[in-house]
Specification:
The complex is a heterodimer of chains A (289) and B (255).
Chain A: H1 2-31, H2 38-56, H3 64-87, H4 91-112, E1 129-131, E2 137-139, H5 140-162, H6 164-174, H7 176-181, H8 186-211, H9 219-233, H10 238-258, H11 263-277, H12 284-288
Antiparallel strand pairs in A: 1-2
Chain B: H1 12-16, E1 19-30, E2 33-44, E3 48-52, H2 59-67, E4 74-79, E5 82-83, H3 89-95, E6 97-100, H4 112-120, H5 130-136, H6 153-165, E7 171-175, H7 183-190, H8 193-198, E8 202-207, H9 210-216, E9 219-224, E10 227-232, H10 239-247
Parallel strand pairs in B: 3-8, 3-9, 6-7, 7-8
Antiparallel strand pairs in B: 1-2, 1-4, 4-5, 9-10
């Protein structure tokens, strides 16, 4: 039964990873931008939460009401200024600039805060759990994060498949020039896609900040796990990203059950295995068809 | 200048119509390479103007520059007298220039209908709509949910034309329609031209398949290494003259 417990924990953890990965996947899928500051932005969201919560006397769980809109705006403005400027100069520039941004963010957080770790206070929710039987108990917070992740992914999928702006985002991702010839203002569409992506980064950062403690340098690991989830799931498919997140979560959870120090390592091994055996990822084949 | 000679027999009709698209002294560079040199042309309302020329003559560059995908080094492009030389491609569509690009360039992951919807999202008022495109291509409605990538080359070309038509352009630019398609399919597509003209559209085509292009065109220009070598009405020239201009043999004739 201990394995069933590990499996359940893993699936729930996978929700957090998928939530974290979808922003990375969107930015790459739509505009070919690899954002190495992805994890650090998530941590900035968590820091922003612990700054605004006491000022506005908000319950911790409601931090997203402020932080997510701020990041959505940041995503649009950031795309129209910095990201677009780097895209115009080639993909390598985007990579290098986001790497630079990552270092700047980490050091700025160290200056402004300290190396101490923090976490977003969500009160009794952090310990609340649903006991299924003596071996399996489900943390309410993990379950809530999983639900938020799934709802977010479904929401983005519906937006992309059913709305005009979603259709334009897919068109621009397919062929930017052809989209322009069809009258699409691609920079604006890129801006909207970046707003969505960075909005989910904020959600992921808040979820992480509630689930675990964070420090100014936590972003690097967030980026790594997000990358692994994206690659395992297959680039460009949000369902693949969810599957990738869950595979990574389950592997880490089962690895930790064998030996607490094996968790992260097991995740890396599965990531490498997928890269070696099925480089297009779990959902990659469907995309190629 | 490929302006056509108003005095020449049979061109009075075209000359009496107003000029829709004007390209003046256009020079376009691809990096160091000069792809188009001092090229001028005027396309009159309701005509089909064909630009013929061998591979690498600068035909596609010319069309892409008119559509806004390349910036000219010098020269101007105007539509109905309004200067569009510095306009973005997306704004030229709204102004009334639509390009069906070489190689179709559909959105492969979008369905047929979604491709048309993207084409129509900033459409000008006019006769063309998705429903009208479905009438033009009767096979299309029942396959509208299929991904564009799953269509055959000829079907993709039809969707690409439909995607441009739904924007209701003043001038439709068609780049190498025949490329990679079976002759029968090419003939079917060219057979649509009168129907497009009937809705008041002006068409500028670029084509390597000279006979096909000259069959539908009211006027043509032959370009070689970025310059006009021959221009006029298809009937005014012997095939040998056109051939000479196409391959750059003998003297340059502009009638």
């Amino acid at each position: 039964m201990i394995w069933v417990g590990a499996l359940v924990q893993g699936v729930l953890l996978g929700g957090l990873y998928a939530l974290s990965a979808c922003g990375l996947s969107l930015l790459y899928g739509v505009m070919g931008a690899i954002n190495l500051a992805h994890g650090d932005l998530a941590i900035v969201a968590a820091y922003l939460a612990i700054i605004v919560i006491p000022i506005l006397h908000l319950p911790g769980i409601l931090a997203f009401v402020i932080v997510v809109p701020v990041f959505v705006v940041l995503g649009y403005v950031g795309q129209r200024t910095l990201i677009q400027a780097t895209l115009d100069r080639g993909q390598l520039t985007t990579l290098l600039v986001s790497f630079g941004a990552s270092i700047i963010i980490q050091n700025a957080l160290l200056e402004l805060s300290s190396a101490d770790s923090h976490s977003i206070d969500v009160g009794s929710l952090v310990t609340a759990s649903i006991t299924v039987n003596s071996d399996i108990s489900i943390a309410v917070l993990s379950l809530a994060i999983f639900v938020v992740a799934v709802v977010t992914l479904i929401g983005i999928e519906l937006l992309l498949s059913r709305t005009t702006i979603g259709r334009l985002i897919r068109a621009v991702a397919d062929d930017r020039e052809a989209a322009q010839l069809s009258g699409t203002r691609y920079r604006h569409v890129f801006g909207i896609a970046a707003a969505l992506a960075i909005g989910t980064v904020a959600l992921a950062g808040l979820a992480f900040g509630m689930y675990s403690s964070f420090s100014p340098t936590s972003g690097s690991t967030r980026l790594l796990f997000a990358f692994e989830a994206v690659v395992i799931g297959g680039l460009g498919s949000l369902w693949g990203t969810l599957a990738g997140g869950i595979v990574l979560g389950v592997t880490q959870s089962i690895g930790s059950t064998i030996d607490p120090s094996y968790g992260v390592l097991a995740g890396h091994l599965v990531f490498l295995l997928v890269l070696a055996v099925r480089p297009s990822g779990i959902a990659g084949a469907r995309q190629a068809a | 200048m490929i302006a056509g000679d108003p005095a020449a027999a049979g061109s009075a009709q075209a000359a009496s119509r107003s000029t829709v698209l004007t390209v003046r002294d256009l020079t376009v560079h691809h990096g160091q390479l000069r792809a188009v040199t001092d090229l001028s042309l005027e396309v009159a309302e309701g005509e089909i103007f064909a630009i013929i020329g061998a591979n690498g003559a600068g035909k596609s560059t010319l069309l892409r520059t008119i559509a806004g995908l390349h910036r000219p080094t010098t020269g101007t492009i105007s539509l109905d007298g309004a200067d569009l030389t510095h306009a973005e491609p997306e704004d030229r569509l709204v102004a009334g220039i639509a390009l069906v690009p070489e190689g179709r360039r559909l959105f492969p992951s979008l369905s047929v209908e979604e491709n048309l919807m993207v084409g129509a999202h900033r459409r000008r008022p006019g006769p063309w709509s998705i429903a009208r495109v479905y009438e033009l291509f009767p096979w299309m409605p029942e396959r509208r949910r299929q991904r564009a990538a799953q269509l055959s080359g000829g079907e993709q070309q039809a969707v690409a034309i439909g995607r441009a038509l739904v924007a209701n352009p003043r001038v439709l630019l068609l780049d190498e329609l025949s490329l990679g398609l079976a002759p029968r399919i090419v003939a079917q597509i060219y057979a649509l031209m009168p129907e497009l003209l009937a809705t008041g559209m002006t068409i500028l085509i670029v084509e390597q398949d000279v006979s096909q292009a000259l069959r539908v065109a009211s006027r043509f220009g032959c370009i070689l290494e970025g310059r006009t070598t021959l221009s006029g009405r298809p009937g005014e020239f012997q095939p040998e003259e056109i051939e000479a201009a196409y391959f750059g043999l003998g003297k340059v004739a502009v009638r």
